[in-house]
Design brief:
Blueprint (H helix, E strand, L loop, with lengths): L9 H16 L4 E2 L10 E5 L2 E8 L11 H17 L8 E6 L12 H9 L7 E5 L1 H9 L2 H6 L1 H4 L5 H9 L6 E4 L2 E4 L14 E5 L4 E7 L5 E3 L9 E2 L2 E4 L4 E3 L12 E4 L12 E3 L2 E3 L1 H20 L5 E6 L5 H13 L3 E7 H5 L16 E8 L4 E9 L2 E10 L4 H19 L9 H14 L4 E10 L5 E9 H7 L1 H17 L6 E7 L6 H10 L4 E3 L6 H14 L6 E3 L4 E10 L2 E3 L4 E2 L9 E2 L9 E11 L4 E11 L5 E11 L2 E11 L5 E7 L4 E6 L2
Parallel strand pairs: 3-4, 4-5, 8-17, 17-18, 19-24, 21-26, 24-25, 29-31
Antiparallel strand pairs: 1-2, 2-3, 6-7, 8-9, 9-10, 9-11, 12-13, 12-14, 15-16, 19-20, 20-21, 22-23, 27-28, 27-30, 27-32, 31-34, 32-33, 34-35, 35-36
Helix pairs in contact: 8-9, 11-12, 14-15
Length: 684
């Protein structure tokens, strides 16, 4: 690969050579700064061989021509220092690096002269290496770290960044590489003091993510990406060469031979799913980490400060494994999670911004409905005297705005199979993009046209696919999704945990703008006022306000979250045989008995201390404790862990202490004090 060194200054070229040979020669090398350093860029003692590296930069406006005369003069000048100044220690190996182009040996005019020149000075230095333009290019290409560090100087038209820049609508010189992420450089700094150890507030969404910070004056600041967008697509676009771009809308559903976009990873957290990207496997957690790290960098570039702390929201129905994976993705991105709150609870903070709300006036029961790209959450809260008391949260991690897009896509596929059976489509990424566009239009208009241009039929002719989709047709296409949402909304009345009359409905998430969703809400909650002015960013606003509270920037409100699962315990003395406790003999109980360690949907933090009695008649016996997590929303059971507890003859008092902190992190202690047995279990 060729590079254009004309963009360098002499000092930048010296730093390039220093970095390159430090990479080649290793940690034993010593790099000199600019100034009176004896005319050297780097020294190294390797295997008892003392090496000196010298850089000489030639300003030029062309890569053509033989520059031997300039190299000869510069090289002789350096050799003269060793001859005229005997006190300078002479190296065993002298490496002279230049950006000059030397003609090939066959042309008689560059390489051959260099070899003769070196021979004249071997009596001073036993080994001399002269590196010119083409050899320097090869060294840079083979040293990835150095190439990345200096890429904003090195890459030129036709190189990878130039091609990527065209796809991004950016000049290659405006791009930088951070590790393998292609980013736009020179973000505008905001001269804002954020206090000591500022906290980022991130709503990591299935389709879009948003980031905010709370300033010391109590006002919130959204953090945009390079294009100024606040809603940043939760996507990673990989190029075959190994580089990637985060959050670029035009690539949201793109899949070609040269690039692949991964999206909607949030609902796959905690699964065993793998994404095969150009023969390299990525887990959903790894993709999430790339997105989160990019969001973190956006904030650091804009505010000129490092961020180490983050406040995160999660879907109400995330189980312990999914929550753990979400937390670990943030930690892998270099952020400590100081608080996790449910998305619906976060969105409820916008209630206080409603013009009719007067703090502390009366008890208000509100329902926060959050339909994002991939998850559906409902939170029921009682608000009074700046206390936000969450009574119940439930939802569906497999229901979101993306499912409406896929319903449209299924209809289009069926339509094409009937109308154009000879047209084979392997990649429907463009169709998904168009389905999302149609869905958004129908939230405001009665009809929308689904358009895909230039499809090739069996005769080789190009045709345009146009399907008129009305609101009536959309309602029919998405009937299954609409029914699920309506069923969840109806369940609020007997699952809410609150006896108060519902005061307001808060809508959040882009999916809540879908007209069929709005119709479902209005039909279930007739006559109840709907607050929908913060749909896209209600969760982020809530996250930022809670971050501000933790930092002391905002008025104190108390947010009481709930633990949305049941932790169930059972015992077994024989394989496959489960039994309950509470004065029950383990030798004679029926299978299938369960006992909750604490009341489901308990307010966080949760502490319980339960003692169970196990009667046993024979010696040398153990009781196996099984712990399960049961989702309150759908009653799905997840096997967590088992512990074998030693028993003695007679009544065994088994103590189980459960401690769940505000971030839903669980510590359980199991004891049989009579036998001095104790075990602590951290579940996430």
């Amino acid at each position: 690969m060729e590079y254009d060194f004309y963009k360098f200054s002499p000092s930048e070229f010296e730093r390039l050579v220093q970095s390159l040979y430090q990479n080649i020669l290793g940690d034993e090398s010593i790099v000199f700064g600019l100034g009176p350093d004896g005319g050297r860029e780097l020294t190294c003692r390797y295997h008892d061989q003392y090496t000196v590296v010298q850089a000489k930069y030639k300003m030029r406006d062309s890569k053509t021509g033989d520059k031997y005369a300039w190299v000869e003069k510069s090289f002789k000048g350096e050799m003269a220092k060793f001859i005229e100044q005997p006190h300078i220690k002479k190296p065993e190996h002298y490496i002279f690096v230049t950006n000059c182009i030397l003609s090939a040996v066959e042309t008689i005019g560059g390489r051959d002269k260099i070899e003769y020149l070196k021979q004249r000075y071997l009596y001073i230095i036993p080994k001399i290496t002269i590196i010119s333009y083409d050899e320097l290019c090869a060294l840079i290409t083979n040293n990835y770290d150095v190439r990345i560090a200096f890429q904003h100087h090195l890459f030129q038209p036709g190189d990878l960044l130039e091609k990527f820049g065209c796809k991004l609508g950016k000049d290659a010189n405006s791009l930088i590489l951070f590790e393998k992420e292609i980013r736009v450089k020179n973000q505008h700094l905001r001269q804002i003091y954020l206090g000591k150890n500022p906290i980022l507030a991130i709503d990591f969404g299935t389709s879009y993510s948003t980031v905010a910070v709370m300033k010391p004056n109590g006002f919130m600041d959204f953090v945009p990406n390079y294009a100024g967008d606040i809603l940043i697509p939760s996507t990673v676009t990989f190029f075959r060469e190994g580089k990637f771009i985060v959050g670029h809308s035009p690539f949201k559903y793109v899949k070609t031979n040269s690039l692949v976009t991964v999206s909607n990873v949030k609902r796959s957290l905690g699964s065993k799913q793998q994404y095969n990207i150009f023969q390299q496997l990525y887990s959903p957690e790894q993709i999430a980490t790339l997105i989160i790290k990019s969001l973190k960098l956006n904030a650091e570039e804009i505010y000129g400060t490092e961020f180490f702390n983050v406040l995160v929201s999660k879907p109400a129905n995330f189980n312990l494994l999914q929550t753990k994976c979400l937390r670990e993705s943030f930690e892998e991105a270099g952020l400590k999670v100081v608080r996790i709150i449910d998305e619906g609870t976060a969105a409820s903070s916008t209630f206080a911004k409603h013009s009719e709300y007067i703090a502390g006036e009366e008890l208000n029961t509100i329902v926060a409905i959050d339909l994002g790209g991939g998850t559906f959450d409902i939170s029921v809260l009682e608000i009074q005297d700046n206390v936000y008391d969450t009574k119940r949260v439930f939802g569906d991690n497999n229901l979101g705005g993306f499912d409406f897009d896929e319903a449209i896509l299924a209809y289009v596929k069926n339509y094409m199979n009937q109308q154009f059976p000879m047209i084979l489509i392997e990649d429907y990424s463009a169709y998904l993009y168009e389905a999302e566009r149609v869905k958004k239009i129908l939230s405001k208009a009665e009809t929308a046209t689904f358009i895909i241009q230039d499809l090739q039929n069996q005769n080789g002719n190009l045709i345009d696919l146009k399907i008129e989709i009305t609101r009536t047709l959309f309602s029919k296409i998405t009937e299954n999704q609409n029914r699920k949402i309506k069923d969840y909304l109806k369940n609020i009345f007997f699952k809410s945990g609150s006896d108060s009359k519902i005061s307001k409905i808060i809508l959040s998430g882009q999916g809540s703008k879908i007209f069929t969703v709005r119709e479902a809400v209005e039909s279930v909650f007739q006559g109840i006022e709907i607050i929908d002015e913060f749909c896209e960013n209600a969760v982020t606003i809530g996250n930022a306000e809670h971050a501000g509270i933790l930092q002391g920037f905002c008025n104190q409100i108390l947010v009481l979250n709930v633990f949305n699962s049941a932790i169930t315990v059972a015992t077994s003395t024989k394989e496959g045989r489960l039994s309950g406790f509470k004065e029950i003999s383990v030798d004679s109980v029926e299978n299938g008995y369960r006992e909750n360690l604490f009341k489901p949907t308990s307010t966080l933090p949760v502490y319980s201390n339960e003692t169970f009695v196990v009667q046993h008649k024979t010696a040398k016996q153990k009781c196996r404790i099984h712990l399960f997590e049961t989702s309150i929303s759908d009653n799905v059971e997840y096997d967590l862990i088992h512990v074998d507890i030693p028993l003695h003859i007679g009544a065994n008092h088994i103590k189980i202490i459960t401690d769940i902190n505000v971030n839903s992190q669980i510590k359980i202690k199991v004891c049989n004090e009579a036998l001095e047995f104790s075990k602590i279990i951290n579940l996430n």
